[in-house]
Amino acid sequence: xxxxxxxxxxxxxxxxxxxxxxxxxxxxxxxxxxxxxxxxxxxxxxxxxxxxxxxxxxxxxxxxxxxxxxxxxxxxxxxxxxxxxxxxxxxxxxxxxxxxxxxxxxxxxxxxxxxxxxxxxxxxxxxxxxxxxxxxxxxxxxxxxxxxxxxxxxxxxxxxxxxxxxxxxxxxxxxxxxxxxxxxxxxxxxxxxxxxxxxxxxxxxxxxxxxxxxxxxxxxxxxxxxxxxxxxxxxxxxxxxxxxxxxxxxx
Length: 251
Ligand code: MG
Ligand code: MG
Fold this sequence. Notes:
This protein is an alpha+beta fold. It contains four helices and 15 strands.
């Protein structure tokens, strides 16, 4: 069931979104060679708690971190660790959620560590662009869910990359994951019709190689099946009378 939010609820979601976006930005500024993924996680947790919010991911299904931090061929759900040290040339995905006032925010970005390959930079750029293609599709009058996925996947494949199919975006609000699923692929004109008050996390996960993924024995980390690099970009967005608002975008 899709929970449509009224303007007061969307105002509350803006607060959760702002804190989420700030925590992600702070962690992004810390990204450099020698930093551990645990240090990034600590920074995120401290900021969220300082704001009076709770990290959405901490304890979610037993997840041990406040953020999911995934390096290179890790796609999503990487567990922060003192043993994971960033090195020049890596790309690191940081995925953050904050809960306050009864609502969640959820946002992710991919950061280069120092100088990275041209291909890695292009992957990061195309992934971000594909998110905005999805937002544009959502903003059109009479848009359906399939329009978002078709726009994302169309941009990704036109650039020679592939979209992860096994994991998808989602509705978000009182619960971190609500209906509907928001796939990063689909058929334009198909699926649920979008309406004002819907709040969804649009989050393309894009691989340089094939779209296949595998889950590691730690029960969390998801990697590309072929070992190629993967990038992730996500914002929580609200469909409102004033258009599509990116609730987790802070700058
Ligand atoms: Mg996320
Ligand atoms: Mg999400």
